[in-house]
Amino acid sequence: SRQVASQCQLLQSSLGRLSSPQLPQLPDEPVSLQDAPGGLFQMPPGDPFPERVTVVWLSVLALACALVCDPQENLSLAEITLRRLAPRLLISLRLLSPGADVLLRQDAADALLDRLLPHGQMLFLNERFLQAVDREL
After folding, report:
1. Which of 3, 17, 37, 117: CA 20 to 30 A from 132?
2. Domain residues of the chain, as ranges?
3. Could you tell me if 36 and 17 are in contact, meaning their C-beta atoms sit under 8 angstroms apart?
4. DSSP structural state of residue 125
5. C-alpha to C-alpha distances, 36 to 8, 44, 128, nearest whole angstrom
6. Cα–Cα distance between 52 and 69 in angstroms, integer?
7. What is the reported pTM?
């Protein structure tokens, strides 16, 4: 998480944007993440992963979402999955105070991850499937 936060801050500063530690008001409508900043980096073997992994990350509002990918996984699919997963996770957020404290509702997040990443496996997601998942959840 520290490396993702560092990557987000580096990207924000390179774009000339100041990052705010406060979470902006969560929108009532779905967020479009087409232009949301993101990237990827590799982590060497060691703690916590025994082999080299690639982390795909996406900055959403003042939060960051990340997927840790094995070497053989499709990174383009990981980015697409993350861009489709992040707005649905935002719906699962609950503000704890007017500041930056948020809580991810575990039951909603677990159900979402179970449907979109069953057993940690990425799926090719189409809009019809996503609409069905949205209705179900």
Report:
1. 37
2. 7-22+32-135
3. no
4. -
5. 11, 26, 23
6. 9
7. 0.69
- pLDDT given at position 115: 81
Q: With contact defined as beta carbons under 8 Å apart, do 96 and 105 qualify?
A: no
How would CATH label the architecture of 7-22+32-135? 2-Layer Sandwich (3.30)
35's CB contacts (< 8 A; 6+ apart) are none
Instruction: For residue 43, give both structure tokens.
Output: 């982590």
Token output for 57: 């990350």
- For residue 48, whether the previous peptide bond is cis, meaning omega lies within 30 degrees of 0, is yes
| Residue 133 token pair | 């998942």
H-helix or E-strand containing 132?
helix 127-136
- 137 Cβ partners below 8 Å, 6+ apart? 88, 108, 111, 112, 115
**What is the tens place of the pLDDT at every residue in 65-92?**
888 999 899 998 898 888 888 888 777 7
Q: Using CA of residue 25, residue 27, residue 125, residue 12, what is the dihedral sign?
A: negative
